[in-house]
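--- STAGE predict ---
source: upstream dedup step, 1 unique chain passed
mode: sequence only
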Amino acid sequence: MQTWEQIINTAMLGTGKRTLGVNEMPPALADAVVQIQHNTTDKEEQFLQMAALAFNFRQCGILPLQKEGVTIDKAAVEEKRYCSALAKQTLKDILDSESNSLLQFWLQQCKSKEQVVTPELVPLLLSVATQQKKLQNLIVACCGKRGDWLSRFNPEWDFSTATTDEEIWQTGTPEQRKMVLEQLRQADPATARSWVQQTWAQEDANTKVEFLVILGINIGSPDIEFLETLSKEKSRKVKDFALWLLKQIPGSPIVQQYWQVLQEAVTNSHKGIKVHLPASLDDNIFKTGIEKLSNNKEYTDEEFIVSQLMQSVPPASWEAHFQNTPDVIIRYLQKDKVGKKLLPALVQAVVTFKDQRWATAFMQNSSVFYIDIIPLLPVNEQEFYSIKFIGQFAENIIEHAIKREDTWGVDLARAIFIHTAQNVYQYNRSFYSRYIHCIPVAIVTELEKCAPTEEYQSRTWSNTSEYITTLINLKKQTIQSFND
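--- STAGE serialize ---
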């Protein structure tokens, strides 16, 4: 089409040097071109209108590709019930709100009730899934048979063709594989490990590390054999991460080696705690990430080495060693000059081995508040201590709170909002949108009480609280639509 070439030339030269004439346009458009020239004298406007006219004329003349003998089967009949009209409207409102957290919440509710979206929403959700890869499995489940059928006609939607977890693991996208492996690791750790072993040789170093991160979920003695074989890996980061995981398994050889050293190195007498490394210490222990020289002038080299070893030994081991309970051991170490230096390492061990009993003992007996212990406590204690210490450790407490999958209590949400309302630039609308799944519906009546005293902050909070109210109402509506 020569007309299109003339349009491109004119666009490149500019209308100041060249204009389109009637004779350069298709004869069928002559009358329309004359009308454009009559209605406007502006060269740029004339050019744009004529180019748009030619573009549409060109598009109308293109015939779709045809292929003989192609047949398209109908989508299979849905086996699950369609979601309600209220649920459908709520989904549309959530998509308009652009809150991925709310969308995930809606999809989880839909899947848990074994329902699917109505056909007209399937293309919309599949398009969302191309951008929000973490939601792909949920979206596939909520699109049902129609989603499986429709994905055949768009390569970008091919993630919906796998129907079982194992198929997703074998043929899914990298993000899908990680998601299905994580879900399986939580439910069936042994099978998840076997899947990783089956494909291990095919994976690159970065993927191997990502899979090892997932194997860190429910890590235990059955994983020792596989992790020890990774000492022969070519990649240093794979070997280092595997060793780090072994240090979290009480029965692993590396942990047992550390404990044997500690039993000799840490002794207790009427004069207090003494630290002295055994003369028979195997120098190979320093090839496992243990540093020889102290980087803290308050610690001797021996105390520094012992502190590092303690971090990778279960806290319960010290009960037999000191022949006492966690409460007594903690109180005793706090009063001892050397023992006080070892306490942070013991806290790290509590976190590493997720020892809830020792976590509670530290909270009840320690004169120092250790923020990293909070996630190990029962939910009611987590919230009690979070509210108690939020004034001193607000950012740390909020960081732990947003990692929870359950809903906060109203009192904790109020305490968090009082802080976030005073830091509007750090905690903007996207913060509340991202973590709406944690925010309790009942907090909506408490939002005014969270307002800052400063006038400019109060005005900003007023606008933010309106947005939070909208999100909460959508969350409430989602719950209602799947429970009626």
